[in-house]
Amino acid sequence: MNKNFLDEIIVTNKEGLSNYPFSLPLYSKGFSLKLSQPITFITGENGTGKSTFLENLAMQIGFNSLGGNKNHQYSDEKIRDNSDLANAIKLVWNRKTNEGFFFRAESFFRFANYIDDLAKENGEQIYGAYGGKSLQEQSHGESFLALFGNRFNKGLFILDEPEAALSPERQLSLIAILYDLTKNNDCQFIIATHSPILITCPGSELYEIENGFLTKKNYKDSKQFQLYSNFIKSPDRYLKYLLQDE
């Protein structure tokens, strides 16, 4: 029995919009994403709309689109307004919640500054949910894992490229965190990633954006896993092709 919080995400373009991101093939037609496992990975080439999707999904749920949860109130005037997409998203809930977190690697530094500002105003106990000290006083990778291992406990979690600052070893640590958090049906994850390591996480399903469609894949059949696997088996063949003199 599926005990996820969120069962399905439906994106429509009933008004026939052509502005970004509806100019992308994935959004011009619309799609439905069914979530049957506690962890859902989304992969695809740069520019296919993964991060835009997660940002607007977070907005629709009520999280801060820069990163954080419903209580994190900060903004950045430089961020593009994509709210047309958020308004085009319909959520089908199994157990509705607004508990959780939106992690966005691109703006994590801004979020860390925001937490420091809160600590200055309200005391350093604020850091308790982030490993006991400022995220700025840890390495990039350490701060990511401090957030994942301490701040995440129950709810719906949306992660945009969480591997961005993690070594392969730390990515394995993240797999362990994800698996442990989903064992009791208290957490659900939707994750956009380029990592061939993360997508092997047990209890997950993988969708790949290709040719403007979301296609369900076994991780071994995904483009990124095959590319990494083939490259590791024969790097000389790839390098000879890439670096050949004209």
Name the features.
alpha/beta; 33% helix; 8 helices; 6-stranded mixed beta sheet; 3-stranded antiparallel beta sheet; 9 strands; globular; 246 residues
Written overview of the protein:
By secondary structure, this protein is α/β, with parallel strands linked by helices. It has a single domain, classed as Rossmann fold (3-Layer(aba) Sandwich), CATH 3.40.50. It has helices at residues 25-29, 50-61, 83-87, 108-122, 140-150, 168-182, 223-233, 235-242; strands spanning 6-11, 31-34, 39-44, 89-93, 100-104, 155-160, 187-192, 204-210, 213-217. Strands 5-6-7-3-8-9 form a six-stranded mixed β-sheet, with helices on both faces. A three-stranded antiparallel β-sheet has the order 2-1-4. Strand 8 and strand 9 (213-217) form a beta hairpin. Helix 5 packs parallel to helix 6 and helix 7 crosses helix 8. The protein is globular. The mean pLDDT is 90.
